């Protein structure tokens, strides 16, 4: 369904919605243990016009789960910096503390 959503929004030239659909595909792939595929999708979003904290968080999580702890730290840090500025995310103290703790060298 995420692929159908992506195709629909991409065809209708709705880049923000297409990016959300692609992000959703990547997050689902990560949850399924398909880390390389997930990381590829999130890297595409990172190279796009509007990478955001959610993309950085997913890249960090993929790298972390792949055992690339050193590489994940910068992404956790960037995710924390951006996501802590969003009111509804800032309310999730546990999430932000985890991002912050995993960004520490």
What does this 3D model show about the protein?
With 105 residues, this protein is mostly helical. 78% of the residues lie in helices and 0% in strands. It is built from 7 helices and no strands. Helix 2 runs parallel beside helix 4. It is globular. The N and C termini lie far apart (39 Å).
Q: Please report which band the strand proportion falls in: under 5%, 5-15%, 15-25%, 25-35%, 35-45% or over 45%.
A: under 5%
* Silhouette: globular
Give helix and strand order, one letter per element, not per position: HHHHHHH
Average pLDDT across residues? Answer: 92
How widely separated are the two ends? Answer: 39 Å
What is the β-strand count? 0
The value of Rg in angstroms is: 14 Å
Measured as a percent range, the helix fraction is over 70%
Uncertain stretches of 5 or more adjacent residues:
none
Largest sheet properties = none
User: What would you call the structural class?
Assistant: mainly alpha
Number of helices: 7
